[in-house]
Predict the structure.
Amino acid sequence: MQLMGRERGLSQKFIDEALTEQLENDVKGTSFRVKYVARLTSLLGILLFLLLAVEGISVPIISKLLTLHVLVGMILVPVMALKIGVTTYRFSQYYMKKQDFVSAGPPWMPLRIIAPLIILSTIVMMFSGIELALTGPTGLSFSLWKPLHEASFVLWFILMVPHVFAYLLRATNTSYRELIRLRSKDSKASTSSWNRSTLVLIALGIGVGLGLRFIPYANTWIAFFTQKTFHG
């Protein structure tokens, strides 16, 4: 009975987290940098959600949408890197007992626990994907990089499900308000929002450049899939 009560309590807490409409650090933030980090994290999170949705569509029919998979995958690299950097900064400031971040408080404990695992699986997934593109359909790809890419994706997906459900609503609301601030008559608020949006656009632009640079590497895999289909 006690265990069932704990499970219900955990489930209810997760539902409460998912239905929270505002990002705590954006509301409770006691300093400019706490709010800055919260809003930038939300913008990056929503962008990643959209890009990953496109990437996910390509997975079941990877042989037909490989070019799209590689393009979006490389766009994700700098965006994810910026998101990891901002998140790491937030946690470092909290654990270094910086008063403004301590006052804003940490994420819910279960989400805090899986955060490092999400970062690790993301790094492995992206690195192995890049190696697959560079190496091509060779023995090393099938013996190392492909299994590693697939395994890290499965782990990453399992970890991301609760993360996305917990943060999607508040990240969406925070990002919407952030975009509204771009047209604010308050020059300070508008400048700050444009600054964050510019960082996101720079990461996105670098990603597009990387994606276009890596598209030719997909050709060897496309030829491999075509030959495999032709020969049955």
Notes: The two ends are 56 Å apart (CA to CA). The mean pLDDT is 87. Residues 28-218 form one domain.
